[in-house]
Every structure is written in C-alpha cells, then in structure tokens.
Amino acid sequence: MARRGGVKRISAGIYSEIRVALRDRLAMILRTCTIYVEHRNAKTVTTNDVICSLRRFGRPIYGFDPDTYDGQKKARRPETNYDPETARRPETNDGLKKVRRPETNDGLKKARRVGAGTK
C-alpha cells in the first residue's frame, strides 16, 4: 500500500508495526460487528454490520448509504447476443444488410454493408 501511495523506501521495522496496527483495528471492527450479529440473533456478518461498526467509530465508508445503496441488487452485466446452446454468437442484426458486389479481379466476390433503407 505504501508503494501505491508513492513511498520509495520503507524501514524494515515498519512491517511488524503495520501488522500489529492492522490486527488491532480489525479486531476492534469485528468486536462491534459481533455485537450487531448477536443482537439480530444471526450467524452471518453482513455488509451492513461492518458499515454500522465503522460509522460507530466515526470512519464511515461512503457509497453504502441506505438511501443510495441497494445490497440486493447485483452488478449489471453488459448484454451480449451469446447463445449458450450453439456456443457461438449469432449474427448481429444492426440494421445493415449485405449487398453483393461485382466480381473483382481475383475472381472473389466481396460483400459490403449498406445502411437500412438504401439501395
């Protein structure tokens, strides 16, 4: 993390200090998370438990506001025309049609696309 923050050189003793600080912070957060879980009579720590714990310490995570965040909604995947039965993508129907061209010098016919409604 320090390298990503722009630190060029790090003392060798800093690693053990960071481990201790991280372990203490995580233990403190998990301790309050278990309070929320026990109050709900549940066995699973949810993201809402962690968010409430961090808010209790005065270090909220932004982007998880109940007004704007819906934990039930999954990430939206881009739509594709992939057909799992044939395991290939079907031809696209983008409003263009293939038009035959006259033969070229090498004897092969080339197809060109023309916009819909044109001749």
Automatic annotation (TrEMBL):
<protein>
    <submittedName>
        <fullName>Histone-fold protein</fullName>
    </submittedName>
</protein>
<feature type="region of interest" description="Disordered">
    <location>
        <begin position="65"/>
        <end position="119"/>
    </location>
</feature>
<keyword id="KW-0158">Chromosome</keyword>
<dbReference type="InterPro" id="IPR001951">
    <property type="entry name" value="Histone_H4"/>
</dbReference>
<dbReference type="InterPro" id="IPR009072">
    <property type="entry name" value="Histone-fold"/>
</dbReference>
<keyword id="KW-0544">Nucleosome core</keyword>
<keyword id="KW-0238">DNA-binding</keyword>
<dbReference type="GO" id="GO:0030527">
    <property type="term" value="F:structural constituent of chromatin"/>
</dbReference>
<keyword id="KW-0539">Nucleus</keyword>
<dbReference type="GO" id="GO:0000786">
    <property type="term" value="C:nucleosome"/>
</dbReference>
<dbReference type="GO" id="GO:0003677">
    <property type="term" value="F:DNA binding"/>
</dbReference>
<feature type="compositionally biased region" description="Basic and acidic residues">
    <location>
        <begin position="70"/>
        <end position="109"/>
    </location>
</feature>
<comment type="similarity">
    <text>Belongs to the histone H4 family.</text>
</comment>
<dbReference type="GO" id="GO:0046982">
    <property type="term" value="F:protein heterodimerization activity"/>
</dbReference>
<dbReference type="GO" id="GO:0005634">
    <property type="term" value="C:nucleus"/>
</dbReference>
